[in-house]
Amino acid sequence: MKSPKYIILIILFSIALISSAILVFYDFKPIPEICTPGEGCYAVKNSQYNTMFFGIPNEYLGTGFFLIMILTTLSQMLNPTRKKYMVIVLGISLVSIFALYSIYIQIFLIKAYCKYCMTIDISSLIALALILIFRK
Length: 136
Hints:
Blueprint: H1 4-28, H2 40-45, H3 58-78, H4 82-110, H5 115-133
Helix pairs in contact: 1-3, 1-5, 3-4, 4-5
């Protein structure tokens, strides 16, 4: 039987991937139901903090990152190696640091909340807790 830890990680990464993809989709076709102008999601998405690395919007980086994490986790389930496990742990650790920073930015700097960003952040932190609780 496959490790339930990896199945849960894939579910968490998929939730984060879908949330990131929704924000990417918004760039191509703004839909009021996604980010209502003047409200939390809109304020966060259009803040100066939305492009923190290399001028690339965070939702694009998140979409790529979570897709890679899903593929790596699937590969780990099929053919476990220490190297892939370490990539998963490192990826979750880094994204969790970013998640804490993102939550800080939303609460203290922007003073607005994006439901999709928070979903990504919480999924990342739950993944970190899972990795810490169920270490090899």
